[in-house]
Amino acid sequence: AGFTDSSRYSFKGAAYFDTEEGYEKLTFEDMIDEPVKTTLGADAWVGMAQHYFFTAVIPKSEKIEVQTEYKSGNNTPYLIRYLTPKKEVLAGGSQSFESTLVVGPKLQKELPNINKGLDLTVDYGVMTAIAKPLFWVLDKIHGVVGNWGWSIILLTVLIKLMFFKLSEAQYKSMAKMRKLQPRITTLKERYKDNKQKFNEEMMGLYKKEKVNPMGGCLPILVQIPVFIALYWVLLESVELRQAPFMLWLQDLSSPDPYFILPAINAAAMIMTQRLSPTPGMDPMQQKIMKFMPVAFSVMFAFFQSGLVLYWAVNSVLSLAQQWYITKKIEAQDSAPVA
After folding, report:
1. How far is CA 123 from CA 106, 301, 323, 333, in A?
2. Separation CA 282–CA 287 (nearest Å)
3. HSE-up (13 A, CA, CB side) for residue 36
């Protein structure tokens, strides 16, 4: 599978759970290198998980022993099993061993109702603390609008509104730096043979004009965890599998067949780049920066359309906000003094 195959980034392997030890997962490599033999207690289950689907066995027993094994050469070499305590059967009597088999998609609203810990098979990794609330909001929006595509758009709008002030600070800083661009270009020409002097003069200019060159970085850093978490929500949620949006987009878990969303995203990225200052950047770096929207757009063309829809909406909203703030600051600077 290629790097744009979303299932490539999802956990695939064995898993088990009990109330005391919690959720444990084992990749196939783990099962080869370190076979497991452990005892589980209340609410225990064992199973196999992959991108959108899982299989689990929930034994009706207060205690079980879990074992994993790798059988080289078998059609199904990776095994996980459980053993319950033995039962004595008296003459003429009977005993039974009961368990529940669960096979199907990892539907996040249903899993907690089947057994404790099954919802953990929806694996958001280190972003779980942020991703779960994001999915909760996404699901609530879907409950109102009834369409996962519009739900993604509305959630992206909500996140942009939540970070509006942070983004505003970022774009104001960038707009001020953009205003200084011609003066920085002059300094670069003047001190083209003395890079240290150029950097000193440039930092002096920033200080004089009260511009913080790092002012646009902190807002970006604060937002990154949320955007990565939303990426994992859209990547992991089986609810988007074969879910139609509108017109040509009939499966949000598959790539855009006509590359329209990647094209919209590319256009927004290119226009955003034109609004973004590049002080002190050498010609080679500028060429690389100009190439990045093209490179990202080619990559996005083969990701699932639900993800690209989020990226495209976010890019368009970011462009609109940056354009508005940039024009507002430019208008203030050009206004006549009374």
Report:
1. 10, 25, 37, 50
2. 9
3. 24
Tokens linked to 327: 């024009």
- The first and second tokens of residue 286, run together, are 């500028």
Query: At residue 215, does pLDDT exceed 60?
Result: no
The reported pLDDT for the residue numbered 154 is: 93
What are the structure tokens assigned to 227, written together? 């955007």
Task: Report the C-alpha gap between 304 and 251 in whole angstroms.
Answer: 9
How is 121-169 classified by DSSP, letter by letter? GS--GGGHHHHHHHHHHHHHHHHHH--HHHHHHHHHHHHHHHTHHHHHH
Give the integer Cα–Cα distance in Å for 180 and 206. 9
Tokens of 66: 């879990």
Q: What is the DSSP string of 111-124?
A: HHHHSTTGGGGS--
DSSP-based three-state secondary structure for 69: strand
Give the C-alpha separation, 331 to 50, whole Å: 54
Q: What is the pLDDT of residues 147-200, one digit of tens each?
A: 999 999 999 899 888 877 777 766 666 666 666 777 777 777 777 777 777 777
pTM for the model stands at 0.72
Q: Compute the C-alpha angle 72/78/81, nearest 5°.
A: 125
Sole residue written with tokens 């070499």: 77
pLDDT tens-digit series, residues 317-338: 888 877 877 777 666 655 554 4
Query: Which of the 8 DSSP states describes residue 209?
Result: T
Q: How far apart are CA 105 and CA 292, in angstroms?
A: 37
Determine the 3-state secondary structure of 274 from DSSP: helix
**CA-CA distance, 17 to 42, in Å (whole number)?**
9
